[in-house]
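Repro:
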Amino acid sequence: MIRKHQYIERTTSRVKTETLYHDSIVNLIYSQELENAPFLFRTLTSSRFSKFLGFLNYDTLIGSSISGVRKFADRLEVDLSECLDPPDSLNTARKMFERKIRYWETRQMHPDPAVIVSPADAKILAGSFCTSSIIFIKEKFFCYEELLGKDKPRWIDSFADGDFAIFRLTPEKYHYNHSPVSGEVVDIYEIDGSFLPCNPGAVMSLAMPFSKNRRVVTILDTDVEGGTRAGLVAMIEVAALMIGDIVQCYSEERYDDPQRLTPGMLLKKGQPKSLYRPGSSTDILIFQKEKVNFSIDIISNMYRRDVQTRFAEGVGRGLVETEVAVRSRIATVKERSIL
């Protein structure tokens, strides 16, 4: 019997059960039969197969018919009223997935410049690489060095014993990523890899899946004029099953004049940075040691005992996600921490 997966709705503290979209496909990929067929497993998690699934589900009439765009929106509680474009124009699965929202009205930010915000509408887990931390999590979700790139000793050293947050985006979510901090881009690079699902069951079936997937790493220096003053921050955008691309498209004002990221570019906190096309996906933020405090509710929710979570096996204990909104507070710079 497959266990359900629950999380905490932040605004109400209620326990909710997640609708696991494409769960049957993910369970097939991680069935015992395919575990004994490594060639087939590699094929099903390859770039070519992932793009084929994305095309079938989001770009064909068959996919739109099977998904039922309106049915999909209703079943997964997509709020069409917050969309920038008229709901009637979102008439394909891809348009629904890549929708823009009036985030300046519907996802307002805390005014404190020391607040660090969520890069996405997502479900969050927080952790630490430091063994003495109360939120130390043994390597399960990713290998630290491999995640940043083993040929990047400068960044591996810079973030040693730091803290991290994992943001899991599900298919119904708004899929623009926003900058969690204000700072200067000092490095941006892509690491090739597989297209493993971000479904919680699949994550627990694999060893360190997020450091195996294709990903884009952006290093931000926030100790610059107008910056958040949180030291270096790594933002890692991880592709997954049916993700066709990670498009870097930073806009300083709403979605106007999108730009590709380059070193030296200054990013403003809360502004659109990139777009996933389409499927499930994950953002990971890494902070330097003793630079930030995560919000208390996110940490306390992780250890609630009244929630059924698939994030348990291999971790040593159950870990409960909190659903957060893009641009909402997830941490603060330590020197100016607020509750």
